[in-house]
Each structure stands twice: as C-alpha cells, then as structure tokens.
Amino acid sequence: MTAEGWAVFLGSWALIIALNAFCFYKLFAEKPAKEITTCPPPPDADREA
Amino acid sequence: MPDESRERWSSKLGIILAVAGSAVGLGNFLRFPAKAAANGGGAFMIPYLVALVLFGIPLMWIEWTTGRYGGAFGHRTAPGMFHRLWRHRAIKYFGLIGIFGPIVIFIYYTYIESWTLGYAFFSLFGEYAGATHQAAMKGFLQSYQGLNQTHFHGLAVAYAFFLATFLANCWVLFRGITKGIEWLCKWAMPLLFAIAVILAIRVLTLPPNPANPGQNILNGLGYMWNPDFSALKNPDVWLEAAGQIFFTLSVGIGVILTYASYLSRRDDVVLSGLTGASTNELAEVILGGTIIIPAAFLFFGQAEMADIAKSSPFDLGFVTMPLIFERLPVLNLFGAALPTGNLFGALWFLLLFLAGITSSVSLAQPAVAFLKDELGITKRKAAILFIVVTFILCQPVILFYGHGVLGELDFWGGTFCLVLFATIETILFGWFFGIDRAWTEMHYGADIRVPRLYRYVIKFVTPIFLLVILAAWFLQTGPPTLRPGNVSDWGGLCAKLRAWYASSPRVFREGPPMVEFLPGKAQDAVNQVAQGYKSRWDDTIGGPRMVQDPPIKWEQKSAILAGFNQLLEKPDLFEQPHFEDIRLPGSVQRFLRTDRAKWSKEDIQWLNRAVLETALPMHFGPRRAKIVEVVLMVDVADPDRPYILGTRIMLLVLLLGLFVGLQVAWHKRRDVWDRTEPLEDQP
User: Fold this and answer.
1) Distances in Å between the alpha carbon of B191 and those of A43, B186, B201, B352, B574?
2) According to the model, what pLDDT value does residue A43 have?
3) Are B509 and B580 a contacting pair, CB within 8 Å?
4) Residue A44, domain member (yes or no)
5) A15, B49: Cβ pair inside 8 Å?
6) Could you list the residue range(s) of the whole structural domain that residue A14 is in?
7) How far apart are CA B515 and CA B522, in angstroms?
8) Fewer CB atoms < 10 Å away: N or C end of chain A?
9) pLDDT number for residue B634
C-alpha cells in the first residue's frame, strides 16, 4: 500500500467514524426537555392549485 | 376507517436502526468494494464523498422531512405526501412510483435473499466443497438456480429456501411496525455489525499466500485503496460514485417516507437522517471495504483481480467469496480439526441474509401501509393481501430465472423508478413546497441545525445532480433494455466478421473469416448487412470511417444474436486459429489446464464467453465495445423476448391495480386528503 493509499484509507475511515460518533453522541446525550423554538409551517389551505 | 391514533416507533434508536437496516443491504458488502476497486481505488472516495455530501445526505433529509410532514396529515405513502407538497390533482399519481417501485424490488429481492440463506446452510455442511475453481462454483450457483442439473435436480431446494425466506418476511410484516420491523432491526443490525467485524478481523489477520508472499493483506488493501487520480478525469467514475451513493442509502424508493410517517411531529429528523446515513456508510466503507477485495487479492492475486472487480455482485458474493472461505486454513480445536472455512462461509452468508431481510421487510411496508391506512383495511388483511399478490408475482422470477425476468424487474424497480421518484420528490420539496417552508419544517423539533448552505444545495445542486444521473442512466441503460440489440454500427460489425484476419494481422493468425463459424442463417444476415456497409480509411483517426451504414432489420439482428448464442455451445471454439494469440485471463488459462472430459455444457459456455469477451474488443477496437457487449448479451436477447414482454405486462397490471386503489383511496378518504392542518397542530 502506498503512502497516498494509507492517506485515503485512514482519512475515509476517520471521517466516517467521526461522523458516526458525533451522531450517536448527540442522539444519546442528555438533553433538557425539548423546547420547540421554531413555529410549525403555516397551514396550506391557500395553496390549492 | 383506520385508526388515526397511529402506530409509532417505540424509540428513536428503533427508527434509526430500521432506516439503517433498510439501507444496509447486499450492495454494501458486494457492490461498493467492486465499484471502488474498478474505478480508481482510493480516488473513487473523492467523488463518492462529494456525492454523499451534495446529494446523499440532502436526499435523506428531504425524505425524512416529507415523511414526517405527510404522516402528520394522516398519510403513510408517497401519493398523499406528494399531495401535501403540491396541491395539484395530478401529482398524487406520480407518488404511486413510491409504492410500485418497492413492490417490484421486493419481488426479486426476496428470491436473492433466499440464496443467502441457502448458501449459509451449504457452507456450514460443506455442500459445495467439491467446487474448487470459479467455473465449478458458478456451475453450482447455476444448478441451484435451476439452470443446469449438475448438483441439484430441479428447483426444489431453491424453492424450499425461498419459502422459508418469504415466510420469515411474512411473520415480520404480520407483527407490524413496533413488534415486527423495529424488533427485527434492533436484533439483526447489531448482529450484522458483529458478524461483519468478525469477518473483517479474520480477513485482516490472514497470513500471506505461501505460494506467493506478495499476495498479502497489505497489498490487498493497496489494491482497494491506492488512488489512481487519473480516473477522476473520467465522467463515468463520477457517475458510478453518485450511483453507488444513491443505491446504498435506500433513497428514492419510498421506504423512508413511510418509516418517517410513523414519527411524531415533534421528533427530530435532521440528526436522525444523518445518523441513518452515517451508519450505512460505516457498514459500507469500513466493513464492506475491508472484506471482499483484500481477501480476493490474497487468494487470487493481481492477475485475476481485474476480472473479479469487474464481475457482477452476484458472482462476487456467491462464486468468489465461497471459494475464498473454503481455502481458509483448518483450525485445530481441542485436538479436532475444524474447517474454519465452513464457519466463516456460513457467517458471511448469514451476514448477507440479515442485510437482506432488514431491507426486504422495509420494501413491503409502503404497500402494506397504503392498503391499511389509505384504503382503510385492517393490518392483518393488508398483510395477507400483500403476501398473496407478491407471492404470485415472485413465481416468474424463480421459474424463468434464466430468461432475463430478474434483470427486467431490476431495471424498472431498482433503477428507473428510483431515480425518477427521487428527482420528482426533490423538485417538489425545494420548488413547489418552497425552500423556506421546507427549511422551517425540517428544523421543526430538530436536535441539530443544518448549515445554511444546504438551502441552496437542496434547491439547486441536488435536483441538478439527479437530472444528470437520470439522463445519463436513461441513455446508457434505457435503449438497450427497452429494445435489446438496438445499437448503431451493426454494419461495421458485420463487415469485420467477414474480414476477420485481414484487418488484424498482428493480433490474429490467418484463418477463415469469423462469419464462417456462424450458422447458415446468421451468415446470410451478416453478408446481407455487410454488403450495404461502406467505409474508407481515415488517417486522422488511424482507422476506417463509416460512410454508409443502412439500417439493419430486426430479423437480421435476431439471426446474428442467435448465431452467437449457438457459437457459445461450440466445444472447440477456443482452439480455432483466431484465438491462439490472444492473452486470456488467468482464471481461463487455469481452467484450460483442467480435465477436458469433465467440462459441463455450462463450463464450455463460460469458457467461450470469456474467449469472445477477450477477442472481440481486440478485433473490433474500443469504439465498438458496446456492440460486442450486445452480441454477448445473448441470454437476454431474442430467445427471451416473450418472457420480457410477459414481465412488462405483469408490471403494467400491477401499476393499474395501484392506480385503481389510489382512486378508491381518494374518494373514500376525501376528508383526510382535504385536511388543511396537521393533526397534531389542531387544538
């Protein structure tokens, strides 16, 4: 395996493992009761085609 | 009417594992490593990651958001969701693709899934132990599929494993979302990852091949990961990477829409979508990229890797991998010799089976949800109706396997519908629903915020990406699939067939023109077509340039294709003087040294195909590579035309049935379709 091969191999692994770790950390991290700060989108009664 | 208190996922992890289970399939372990190795190795990861960021992840968010939004209005499937994104009378009919596509994939996917179950047993009990080379293993697979009688007599064994697999799927469907799919994925996904890790560790710790120490795991990893940056100049490599991202994430099918519709309005979709995508990537890049290619390199060496990397995912999974596991050393355990190959082979196929079943149950869910929630029938009756219909539709795939039925279903369900559906939903989401509303809806209840840049990515980049893929795939695979044999330059091919030796003196020794090998009818057709063809030598291209190429008739094409079909049966084709100087692949050369008396009809077909695949491109040149492909596509050409037409009629009837079902749903649940506010926002 060449140096470039190692770089791509380890880089890809690091990127994907880091993304996965970030996602699962955020998913299971203790969160305060969810406060919905944004409003739901408006009703779409006026969008009849 | 259905109960609108609605089924729900019991936990956030449950839906993430279900979506990951849907996405992690056979392609993660078979298709990705082969595509990467054949398209620039490590360099493939650059377009692959670009495609993931620019359209894989955005598509995930689009589907999760649309699904949750549609679910809030009481819809479970794409027709209702499309109606929510754009209140136009016709748009719901396009949503039918999101139910039709998964059913079509389910029809053939369960049969392939059943092979993995069968092979897990064969592996454990050493059923294919006598097959020691690729041709023999391929013969075993074909015998299992009912294409020859060398190992199995008829389809009884394959059918038994199909029934077992189908019943397993039915059982999960009967139990519903929480007790069925969520329960299955919570068990199967961790088990799948555990098996994949065990296999990856086993492969990474294999000692070098004693016959050739250069064939070691490090060089195997190098074959997979060493980047060939010149490949990035080839647009096909970018298309392949985009296609791989598309297929691997299970987007564009309609499954994620249905799964996300079981979320509560306040549940997060941004982090969940990202987690589902990243879990799939973990299985694909980290585990899928570590098992097949390095192991194949160690056992077969550099010379055969090009063939292996270009072989179909089926061949990789069911021909190459069993051979590799068979050769794993015997383990001495408490004084008893345990052939570890059997154990690891069984684990490999169990891994594929788990990947398969978590995907197949997801493919069934849009149709079951449509029957239950849009047509208002009970969960039990919906599952029974789906099972009966799909069981009937599965039969042609099993009984006429060798006649191109599976390929036809894969084109419509697994390629065409996917890209079309994803393109429509992305345009609806970003443009008709409106990016402002879409952005607000996406972030409603979100655990993380998406960078603002993605507003533009979702609105402009993702649809453009999809339109380019749609156009490219349609041009590449559409015409040959819709009209087999429909390529240009037949005249050039026929002219070459009449002047085999004269135009290639360096490559082939003198001998009779190739056309003389073909049966009489094919010879006549070649001669007729070649008479109308005229070319002149052109120095600027260093070869002949066509000046007159009259259209070829369908009957002439049929005769030529049938002629090549018969040529494949010729036992001494490879001994003809035309083929003496060509350099055949290593696997073919090794096969030629085996006992000729033991060659089966299938072995000879495989050999002749390999000989022609090597010789024809050398003779006709790369410009006519497409025509060579078509000529060798004999098993999906004319003889199978009735089966292909039958399959298309079957699909048309299915589509018509869904259309009628949607009309009924539209009239029966008009109050739901006309609802203007989400259920949870109502006081």
Assistant:
1) 44, 9, 15, 11, 47
2) 53
3) yes
4) no
5) yes
6) 1-36
7) 8
8) C
9) 41
